[in-house]
Amino acid sequence: MTTGWQFWIDRGGTFTDIVARRPDGSLLTHKLLSENPGRYRDAAIAGIRELLEVPKGAPIPVEKIDAVKMGTTVATNALLERKGEPTVLFITRGFQDQLRIAYQNRPRIFDRHIRMPEMLYRKVVEVDERMGAHGDVVRELDEARMKNLQLQAGSTTGQRVTDYCAVRAQLPEQNGGFSTGSEVAAFSPTNPYCHVAPGYDTRFTAVGSYTIPKIDVLFSGTLTSTAGIPVRADWTVSNAIVQQSLGRPLSNNATSVVVNLLKPDDLRSDRVNELDFRIAKLLRLGRTRASIALDLLNALNLDTIIVPNQAFIPNGAWLTPTGTQTPVMTARTAKITVQYDF
Description:
Largest sheet: 6 strands, antiparallel
Number of helices: 7
Low-confidence stretches: 175-191
Shape: extended
Radius of gyration: 27 Å
Number of strands: 18
Distance between the termini: 55 Å
Mean pLDDT: 78
């Protein structure tokens, strides 16, 4: 018999299912939404916390856990649904359509309308170089054409609208199973915020690089700006107080219910802005090359709180850093890298 808890987790694109084994050998099951930023950042950690009955904001007692095993289809779903980060394909000049042409297989040759599969990349950049069939260099890479100033930027934006009015009208206290991060005050069984249409979340990314000719000094940087998460003020209300409004006790013999005191999406945490910068010197030693680089990570160093404490207690630690993940943006970091190619 094990002396601690064991967790087996299946994280899917929509739901995360957890099977847990207590130290006494009995089994428990739990299901959560895989994406629910209004209540938690990670479904697996949130599920473990709930099964262990760890209060919000308190650290998970890892000494009580023997094993955590997890499988996920998130990467496969992102590939199939084309929801990954935008990518660029660099390929030999003249071969930009190579992956589109592929092997020219015709599995449905008599179809009148053939739907070609979408490519995994958003853009193709052709490079002046050529390799032979046996790996020999037919034409060396034309680095001069690659050293010009390069700037790329892009943004994504979207809005997620949720509506659980019908469900919450029947069970207004069942926020845990159908939460959108928009619970209503404990004394309102009709829940005026069950239909939520928040503002748009916008993410911006910019990448740039420039190599000074002749002296071969490279400057490059990446800027990412991500919207903050919705802020909640979770207030724990006892069954005795809620029963006065509902006219009945909470279902499942619950002793309390968590109520969000804020209007949905009325307050958000700070945007997360990250700037990484690099200066590199290229050295040519005959047919070999070497480089020495200085990287400055998180150059802005804004001390942004990524995971604020959303449990509301008067004069408590509301909106202060909390959680098992990194609560505050990583500190400014510098590193030196030396690379030698031969």
